[in-house]
Input
Amino acid sequence: MEKKNRILGGAGEKVLLTGNEAIARGCLEAGVVVATAYPGTPATTIMEKLGEVAPELGFHAELSVNEAVAFEVAAGAAMAGVRSLMATKMLGVNLIADPLTVISVTGVRAGLVIVTADDPQQFSSQNAEDTRFFGMLAKVPVLEPMDGQEAKDMARYAFELSEELELPVFLRITPRICHSSFPVEFGEVRRPKRNGKFVRDPKRFVMISTYSRPRQKLLNEKIIRARSIADTNPWNRSFNFQNGMMVDPGKVYNTFGIIASGMTFPYVQEVLEVTKVNAKVLKLATTYPLPENLITEFLREMDQVLIVEENDGVTELLTRALAQRKRLNVRIMGKDEGLIPMSGELNPDIVGDAMEKLFGIKFREDLTEAYLKAEKELVSQRVPALCAGCPHRSSYYSIREALRRKGRGGSIMGDRGCYNQGAYEPLEGIDSCICMGASIAMASGISHSGTNEPVLSVIGDGTFYHSGIPSLLNAVHNRSNIVSLIFDNSITAMTGHQMNPGTGINLMGESTGFANLKKIVQACGVERVQVISAFDTKKLIEAVMEEIDQPGPSVIISRAPCALVVERNIRKRKMEMYRAEVDLEKCIGCKACMKKIGCPAFGWSNEPKPHLEILPHCNGCGLCVETCPFGAISVPGKPDDALGISVKHREVKS
Amino acid sequence: MNIILSGVGGNGVVLTTRIIAEAALMEGIDVRVGEVHGLAMRGGTVVSHLRLGPDAKGVLIPQRMADMMLSFEPLEAIRQMKFLKRGAKVIINNDPYVGVDAHLGLSRYPDLCRVIEQIQETQDLVDVPATHLALKAGNVVMTNVVMLGTLSASRELPIRREVLLEAIKSRVPPHTIDRNIKAFELGEKAFQEWEQKRACQTGS
Output
């Protein structure tokens, strides 16, 4: 097993890295001093990798309580004159909009880079927003790499650009950069210089309106300067494709051009090589502000230009405006013409389809009718579920059961975390998922709407610290009649078990003071707070039923550690877990257990008769035991009062 | 060369792809790996695109351009078949994962024979009882190493056996190396048996 962190290694070494790892390495080569993030797929591993090496290399890495805080911490460090990084998924950029649009006005004294992972295919996001609009909003440059090598090199360069302009800089990536692996050649690691000092300069950093007005003007000048720097950016390059070969961009004349940004360039390259369509391609790495001279020269040679970009048609919009301003007679095509889809990530097939529409040349064979028919017959989407032994399953089961017994309907406003997997059938634990922290406030809104039904909300501990606290304060202050459940596993589980203020240990491995969830809730002014084990369904059901009848906000903290964490610890110590068993005499194959809780450790067997089968990844949480009307399920040997996953016995394996 | 690796969460698709990619890099072959593991939890669909040599451009393989597939689960092979060239080799672990969603009727899991038949209609199928062989080697978690053994024995890969083994050793816990080598060898043997069986069937 490799002990060494993959992002360490000497200059000249070539290592297979994910895009996230490559960016982390680029930050080391830039000598980053303060690195911050709030975990969010697909960007999470950037900070995980940095956290692993930070104590050794002597820089500060932290998982902040939310994205706005993360950005403000990084910006503060950059104001004090040290290079700083903030990494987030694109939805986190919504949170940093407030400080960002002012930090761009003050500017920074050392490099401040924001890595943002957009998610055009929505692999793990509620929407498909495009960070480039935030670049335009705050007047902050945006860079886009096409592979791992560029991701690393551009991460390092982004700090230099940030210092040259005294502006924050966005490095925009997507899951296909984050989670893909590429060979990456290392440069020198720069020792972090932890020698920051904040020097007073009120006219620059105290953004009251009298001081801010002149700085706003300066910002506009900076973004114009950023354009001309983009004109000479070495990653903006043109290529000529002639008969499927890449040839000297200076010599051959094509009147069909393609502008391909970020990681769409390799897709375009592959399609041109196969279809042998002749084209000049401008590979674009600076997507805001555009390199205007470079693009103007490119457009001048062309009759038609196809713009290939992911998420929204930002380059298309800006290029059209530029062509109009320069009075160029060129047909610009892309999303507006329907050649490139408005939504979803791009791939070579989509670029190939666009080329077929334009030139009638096929990129690849069509799928056969026979295959499409078989696919339709045989393939259906697998439905995700909470893990086996997940405490959220028990909590949702109890909440739904309580509402059923009350018989007055009711809604459950959800939040953002792995408890979202409980939205699917059969649990259907939540009725909404909007954004981090929305659950409590939206429940408040419903409670004030005049409804007679019970209004509940569900939020995880990490999300509660992230942005749930103000909503709870608000619910108390404005007398919302809601029952708020906090699912407390004392970790940020969804993104891979990152620490949060309730964990008591931080990314640097230091033990810290930790938040006392119950006391925070009480300090918000909530009078009725209870802490119940997530696996104590009887108590949970009773508590939910009781609190529904109480006026004002009340809170139930449903507490149990993440099943995956418990499993991992038990395995590490070479101990064994309990497992459920089915009594074949009693099981009649009614599937009541499945219909109630849909645990992924449920299998099925028809031999010798149709019955429930328990799969090897059962960890004996025991929730299924009470779902069986015939008492056919048991967890042999487990004491009656043991709740959730528990250790069976010590067994030292060789 | 373009290879699709598919399976469900928990199969080790991502790790297996990395092992092959690292071995390729050791052989001096250019490589790209495209994968997504956003919310890949136990039982969810997982796929990686592995591109070697001159094909190592973008991280995604275009449809109908993959030279082979390694699938850790039968139905997942069908799900990704659109990427395969006609006649491309498909190595599958013939152990189906039928999720609770299928038992509840929220999704469908087709008849296994029908799945095998469908793959065979257009592809060169090698099916291996990899889960079973991994258990024989000592632990079900080595299913992916069994599959790597089969892949290596198929001689489709431009990577030497010892280099692939080296890459495996660098990725597994040191005290499990012997067991993993055994799993690898069982995978190789499974391929040889499949070849013999086919030779008998075709009468050569």
Notes: Chain B has a mean pLDDT of 94.
